[in-house]
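Hi there,

I know you've been waiting on this one. I reran it after we fixed the sequence typo, so this is the corrected version. Both the input and the resulting structure follow.
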Amino acid sequence: MSFAGFDPAALALLDRLPAMSVDEYAATKSLLAAGVTKPGGALIADVAARLGADLTVQPRSSVSPLHRDLRFAPEGAARYKDHLLLTTWEGVDKKAAPMFWIRVDATRAGFASGIGFTPTIRDRWRAAVGGATGKALADDLAVLARQRHAEVAGDQVKKVPAPFDTDHPRADLLRRTGFQVRFVEDLPDSVRSPDFADWCADRLLALLPVHRWLLANLID
């Protein structure tokens, strides 16, 4: 299934989802499936194929459901999300692989590259970021901040880990316990057409240097 565009009426429903009851969601579920989640699966597959990387797309793992598992959600969290989240990754284990995200809500699209930290990946991250190769990542992040207003996200420890100096030029990165660089843009009119895949691919291509750095320095 090639991406043909999102249904604008279905996308508009995303704003209302967090306040919906179970019955209200049931009444809109078929429209959301046809207009949002199914096209989302086609979108991430289409975009991943354009990035020149060995990326994995799996229907059940690459398209997050619009409902939350409330067993693992904070108390009082809404049952339904206000966005569609799409993922593709490079590596055998999704939980420890460099990954791309596309997040689509009723008015905006977000794009990200990053990786979750296992103890091994954390140690490799610190060695790479703290060493000479870390400057290349910092330079790529500076370009993204300048051109895309991107931000670096992820939890941090309070102190720069040993053996690195507290005034290390990449102290902020060394303190990370997970890593993601991301940016958000308003949805273009092309969201309802196949051209939206081109628009998304262009933005993930901007993140590709970071993805390649993660792959080269953190993965066997």
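Quick highlight: The chain has a mean pLDDT of 94.

Best,
R. S.
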